[in-house]
Each structure stands twice: as structure tokens, then as C-alpha cells.
Amino acid sequence: MPDSTGSNLPGLLSRYQDRILTDWIAAQSEVGVLRADLMREAELRRQSRSFLSHLIAATKNGLNFDIESEQWQDVRDMLTEVTNFRVDHGFTPTETATFILALKQPIFECLRDQYKDDPATLVNEAWSATVLLDKLGLYTNDIYLRGREDIIQRQQQEMLELSTPVVQLWDRIVALPLIGTLDSARAQIVMENLLEAVVESKAEIVIIDITGVPTVDTLVAQHLLKTAAAAKLMGAECIISGIRPQIAQTIVHLGVELPQVATKADLQSAFAHALKRTGVTFSATKPAHTR
After folding, report:
1. Is the pTM of this model over 0.70?
2. In which order are the strands placed within the sheet that holds 205-212?
3. Among 100, 147, 236, 276, which is least packed by CB within 10 angstroms?
4. At 262, is the secondary structure helix, strand, or coil?
5. What is the CA radius of gyration of the chain?
6. Are 206 and 234 in contact (CB under 8 A)?
7. CA distance 144 to 149
């Protein structure tokens, strides 16, 4: 019986469920959706069987093309699961969307067999199936893009954290070597990592080494000042090392002042200054003479 939209597609999906599932899995294998290096065939079968069951359940009370409606919630959840699996395992956007698009052929073949003597109905039902599957395919593509964006953002965050290591040089002395451009996002990571290290190591001296920072402009200088001020609030004195001649000239030219922040030309000088500030002294010893 046709539903309220006049479509017989819901009934056909239910009637030919087993045939459609078998032909769909075969079609996915033929077009390369089944990647043996990325997915087991058993997993593909499980996903296909589950999706088709959700699709039939969503249309049993009538065909509704608004896939954002409550009627399609389970289908959307299943598509999200299927898509995220493919994102995590390295499938391409085309391979992911083809999971849905490959379902067209089995459905069209069932429609052809069912309405071979009724061309008008065959065309109408084929169009309904096309509209529905295209919408689901586009939804899958949107989920894929969001998944990739999440992975990229997570990787960028991890790279930022890895690029701002805090190293303990001595008891109560930590160093933060900076390499590359210091933008606002990275400056926030720098400050958080540094303050956590100050608390964990009970540091009294913090050395921020900017030898690897190619340029220092007003924004970078402000980030350094904020980080130094935050460290001071935590009870740690800040030393900025790696002040090369061109950077010193730039800071003076910009009119940026570094109040109550010690600066040194290199990390070695900063470390020596930090040791002196913490009361650590060294004395040279003569090598023992052997007879």
C-alpha cells in the first residue's frame, strides 16, 4: 500500500529486504567500498544490515524526505557511527559517501522487477528513492567533514602542546624553549603548560628561551609579558633568553618595555643567572695528578 506521499517505497524496502542487503553488499565490494586493508568484511556486513534495518523502520509509517526530523533520528545516529568509523580508519570522502549511494542499484532493480509493466510508477518510485538516498549521502558527507575537522583540530592541539615542552634544568629552575611563531592560540598553551610546570616542580625561576622564535613583534612581546606576569603571580621569577641583537633593536623600536623581567643573550647565560639567583655556586677543581 502507498503511504501518505503516494510512494510504495517503504513497502518495497521491507518486502525485498534480504535481496537488497545481499545485492548492496555485493555492489559495495564491486565499487571498492570494501577496503580489506581498512575494514573486515564482517564489519561491512554488520553496518549494512544495521543501516538497512533502521532505514526500513524509519519509513514503515510513511516516506518523509525531511531527514532532520525525529523520524530519522536512528538513521542519523547509524550514519554518524558508520561515517566516524571510516574517518578514523582512513577512508576517503568518496568511499564514505558511496556506502549510501551504492544502495541505489539494488533498490532500482527491485523497483524495475516490481513495476516493469507500470513505467509511470517505476519512474516516480525511482525518483523518490533517488531523492532520499541523495539526502542521506549528503548528510554522510557533512558528518565526514565534521569528523575530519575534529581530527585536524585535535592534531593541531597536540602539536601545540608538543611544541611547548617545559624542561626542568635544576632544582627550582625550569626552561621553556620556544620554536616558531608565537600566536594567540599557542601563547595560551605556553602559559598553561608553564604554570602547571611551576606548580608541579615548585619552580622559583622560569627561563623562556626565544632563540627559535624568528621574529618578535608587538603581539609576541605582549604574549611574553603576559606569560612572565602569570609566572610571577605563581611566585616564579622570569628570565627571557635568546635576545639576539636584531630582536633587541626590534623591541626598542616598538617601544615595548620589559619591566622586572631579566633578559639574557642566550640560554647558557640565563641558566647561570638562575643558578646564582637560587644560591647555587660552583667552584673549579684541579684535576688530580697521577704519578
Report:
1. no
2. 167-170, 173-179, 205-212, 237-241, 262-264
3. 276
4. strand
5. 32
6. no
7. 9
